[in-house]
Structures are given as C-alpha cells and as structure tokens.
Amino acid sequence: MSPARSAFLLAGLMASAGVAHFVAPKQFDSIVPRSLPGSPRTWTKASGVAELALAAGLALPATRRASARATALFFAGVFPANVKMAYDWRHRSTSARAVAYARLPLQVPLILWARHVGTHDVRRADGADG
C-alpha cells in the first residue's frame, strides 16, 4: 500500500471516530475515566474534535508528518479509556468482554500505523502526492 493511501485510510478512521463521538456520544461518555475533571460529555466532544482535526491534518501532505505523530500520541492518550471500558465490561457477555479486551492490544498497531505514516514523506519533489 502506498504511503499516501495509508495516510488517507488512517485519516478516514480518525474522521469516522470523530463523527461517532457526536452521533453516539453516550458510548464514549461511559468510558471517560472518572479521574478526569469536568463532565464526560465535555471530554467526549473534545476527543471528537481532536480526532476530526487529526484526520484533516493526516489528509494534507503539508501537515501529515506532525499530525501522524500527534495521532500516535492521541492513541496512547486514550488508552486509559480502553482500560476503563475493559474493567467496566468484565461482567458482560463473553462477546462484549472480547470486544472490550481486544481494544487494549489494538492500540499498539494503531500507534505503530500512525508512526509509520509520520515517517514517510509522501510528497514528491514536484509537490504532488506519490
């Protein structure tokens, strides 16, 4: 897969997640760690805005490198929410627990994907995407 395609796919993932924070916020509110100040809805909206901004940055070659690095940090930063979800869902059905537990190791390839996008300059010498 070309670096540009990989960047656009990651941008699409981030944009989809960002939109989901506004379309179905309750599911995100429930995994905001209680130790964070303010309301869970505020954190849900803020993370949705951040995901949309990161998606835009990933889509533009001029900001892709910085946005990819920020995306990797974002994935690491939301890990506590995934831990909370896994803990909170520990008594749910086997399939629900599997989803919650699968999110934990999934952060590693997401972080690596973002780092990979950030280390490949997809701009050619003539300024076009390659």
Write the layout of secondary structure elements.
Blueprint: H1 3-23, H2 25-29, H3 40-59, H4 61-77, H5 79-88, H6 94-119
Describe the structure.
This protein has 130 residues and is mainly alpha-helical. The chain has one domain (3-118). The protein has helices spanning 3-23, 25-29, 40-59, 61-77, 79-88, 94-119. The N and C termini lie close together (11 Å). The model is unreliable at 124-130 (pLDDT under 50).
Task: Provide a compact summary of the structure.
This protein is mainly α and 130 residues long. It has helices spanning 3-23, 25-29, 40-59, 61-77, 79-88, 94-119. The protein is built from six helices and no strands.
Task: Provide the number of structural domains.
Answer: 1
Structural class: mainly alpha
Intertermini distance: 11 Å
**Overall body shape:** globular
Uncertain stretches: 124-130
Q: Tell me what portion of residues adopts beta-strand conformation.
A: under 5%
Features:
130 residues, mainly alpha, 6 helices, 76% helix, globular, disordered C terminus
